[in-house]
Amino acid sequence: MDFVFQAVGFERNKFSEFLSGFPKRSGVYMIFDTRNKLIVLDKTSNLHDRMERFFGERSEMLRDLDLREITSRVEFRPTDSTFETLYLLYRERRVLFPKSYRKMRTFRNFTLMKINRKQRFPRLYASRQVKAGVDYFGPFVSRGQFTRLKSTLERTFKLRPCPYNIRGNDPHPDCLYFQMHTCSRPCNSDIDRRHYLLDVRDAIAFIQGHDLEIEQTLVGEMNTLAADMNFEAAELSRRKLEKIRKARLEAKDTFHSLWEFNAVVLLPTDSVTRCKIAFVREGGIAGFNEYDIDSLEESLPVDTAHFFNNTLEFVRREWQYDEFCLVCNFIVNPLQSVDVILVERSDDVTSRVLERIRDNAKRRKRKQNHVDTVA
User: Fold this and answer.
1) Which long-range contacts (CB under 8 A, 24 or more apart) does 274-280 make?
2) Spatial distance between the Cα atoms of 183 and 201, rounded to a whole number of angstroms
3) Strand partners, 8
């Protein structure tokens, strides 16, 4: 889908003709001066009213910048949802201001939890950037939320919180965590890398809410050890299971893996016979198309296969992080007009989208009937 802007030339003595070119809809607009230089790039919930405020008759008490003397033309693109507005504004800022667009606060950014399993003994980090080959989980709406989960994971799975570059056989007796045995002490070779990575694997499963997988693994270990008469080791596995269950009572929130974050975002249009869909692959927005609902069953599977099954190459990883945060804004603070449908590779995406469209239609009908009844 191409986001094409419409251009309207500005002449002060033909203001009514100029104003009639703007719809009373939300959108993104750009204002250019007489030297063809961009001076304003912003969004609005009503393009017509915003232009009237900028270029209409002005009161002496109004202290806004008077653009009437320096404007040559205005370019705009109407939008049908908050998601589309933010995405379009972000894209334009990214293109026009590549070095400073991230400082413009187009939408809220979130903290990610980073786990680099390429390290010999990985630890947990807070991050706001993405690199290939590293695990990321989020979104964390505050640093406090991140810190609480980090402490829970370190305490439950005995992951090391120390900042040292641990290789093994290099104990740090001056470390408080070493003295208190709050980590598994890989620096002292109390645990080898293979078993430490198993704890990291369980921690990742805990972050994503896959507690049943951890429980099944530990119960299987307990049964095997008990059958071999190794009751001491079986008791350690039981204690670990109890510790994980207790940790879940403290940390009830679960988080998405960036590399497994696939979704379709169902968006409205100016007609109930059409819809717009954004395809989200590994957190980034891979495509943005508009469809007729009647032909959706034939056209959507082709695009779904294209966006979710083909190899995906991100031009820049910071764009992947930005677009992940944009989608997560509508998960953290959901809107009725924006449906974020998380999907797995094996899901029938078309059926899920059609079902959501039917549910939305029923909800609108019930709301309309309720209004008619009250009236």
Assistant:
1) 275/357, 276/1, 276/80, 276/81, 276/84, 277/303, 277/353, 278/83, 278/87, 278/327, 279/303, 279/304, 279/307, 279/308, 280/323, 280/327
2) 16
3) 74
pLDDT in tens, 299-333: 999 999 999 888 777 778 999 999 999 999 999 99
Closest CA to 106 of 89, 131, 126: 89
* The two three-digit tokens of residue 22, written as one number: 């703007």
> For the segment 185-231, what is each residue's pLDDT rounded down to a tens digit?
999 989 999 999 999 999 999 999 999 999 999 999 999 999 999 99
In a domain, 191, yes or no: yes
Shared domain check, 309 and 239: no
Distance of CA 129 to the CA centre of its chain: 13
Predicted local confidence at residue 371, as pLDDT:
47
Question: How many other β-carbons are positioned within 10 Å of the β-carbon of residue 55?
Answer: 19
User: Residues 236, 287: one domain?
Assistant: no
Range of the domain at 39: 6-78
DSSP class of residue 192 equals -
Report yes or no on 90 lying in a domain. no
Interval 122-138: pLDDT, tens: 999 999 999 999 999 99
Q: Quick one: which of 266, 257, 272 has its CA closest to 330? A: 266
* Position 85 in a domain: no
232 and 145 in a single domain? The answer is yes
Q: 263-267 and 339-342: which strand pairing? A: antiparallel
Whole-structure pTM value: 0.90
In a domain, 96, yes or no: no
